[in-house]
Fold this protein.
Amino acid sequence: SGTLRNDLTIWWNKVVKRDKLKLQHLNNYSNGINKNEFKWALKDINLSIEKGTILGIIGKNGAGKSTLLKILSRITAPTSGTVRMNGSISSLLEIGTGFHGELSGRENIYLNGAILGMNKKEIDNKLDSIVEFSGVERYIDTPVKRYSSGMYVRLAFAVAAHLDSNILLIDEVLAVGDIEFQRKCLDKMGQIAGGGRTILFISHNMKAIANLCDRVVMLENGRISNIGEPKKLIRSYLESNMSTKTFSNEIDMTDISQGGNGTVSIKKIRLFGDNSLYKYLDICGTNGDITEIYSRLYG
């Protein structure tokens, strides 16, 4: 740092004080702190994900979904255990992650590409398609700190989806975008997986999970409670979490999208007798409208 005194101060803070904190923690632990008092964000997670799989991850807030993706992205190191990955990773975890606010959108595209190991020529070839997909052409040379949250997500997803990474990790950030862009993103993820790339997708949008994912992992209190086919697990998840709530006994279906060719459509659903949610799921069928029915029931 320039002076011996500063060097010694830095060494003291890094080595001696750190060891004191460790020793204090160990002493406290040995003096009667119960292991059960520690809260594990994730525990006993064992997953093997094949190439080209779209894996949905669902669960309540605090179940450990985002922590899992942060570990896979190497943002957070696991307390124990190992993660083995074959291929490069791009991630879209939180609004603001991976972008430098003072740089323009164009500069951030080059920055992210360089981090993923791409050279300038490779990024040049993809630049136009990234900008076009994001829909922020007019502001591409504006510092991203001046972007709205929706514009930020648009550009971040466009970069993550177009750069040559084998694995794409997406947290619940697409909810910030408008409906048109969400649909565009879901279509793009389907194309990505069709090209042999792997996607891990966290979302509370059960319709998106049902339509997009090959398999679903359900997390509960930091542990895997179930793995399986999307619609079956979504149905179980909604029933287990919503069975105690009350809802209206009548639903107007006129503005809810329905599958089929339109020859027959449901105008209204009225509840008689048992009010269990699975009856609505059966009426809904398997065309992905589960969340729309749910939102109408519970407001």
